[in-house]
Amino acid sequence: MTTSGILLVIAGTLLILFPFIVRLAPSPESVEKLPPFLVYVYRRGDFYFATSPILIVAAIAYFLYLYLR
Predict the structure, then answer these.
(1) What's the rounded Cα separation, in Å, for the pair 27 and 4?
(2) Helices in the chain by DSSP H: which ranges?
(3) Which of 9, 10, 34, 62: CA 20 to 30 A from 17?
(4) Are the beta carbons of 38 and 54 closer than 8 angstroms?
(5) How far is CA 36 from the centre of its chain?
(6) Regions of the chain short of the pLDDT cut 70
(7) Quick check: pTM over 0.85?
(8) How far apart, in whole angstroms, are the C-alpha atoms of residue 69 and residue 59?
(9) How far is 25 from 42, CA to CA, in rounded Å?
(10) Under a CB-based contact definition with an 8 Å cutoff, are residues 32 and 41 in contact?
(11) What are the angstrom distances between the C-alpha of 64 and each of 9, 17, 55, 57, 68?
(12) How far apart are CA 11 and CA 48, in angstroms?
């Protein structure tokens, strides 16, 4: 019961701080200036989706390792 209470307090604190954290985050335009092998940004209208090709390759390698092990 104590653990769930602590998790709820942490979740509430994050929800309260979320608007302030979003204001500090870099704009999508500045993220697009990074090299494409570090960050890939998909943009359609007002929707932005950013991912890292390096993380995708690492995840695929990890899953292949688990599958072949």
Answers:
(1) 35
(2) 2-24, 28-31, 53-68
(3) 34
(4) yes
(5) 16
(6) 28
(7) no
(8) 15
(9) 17
(10) yes
(11) 38, 38, 14, 11, 6
(12) 25
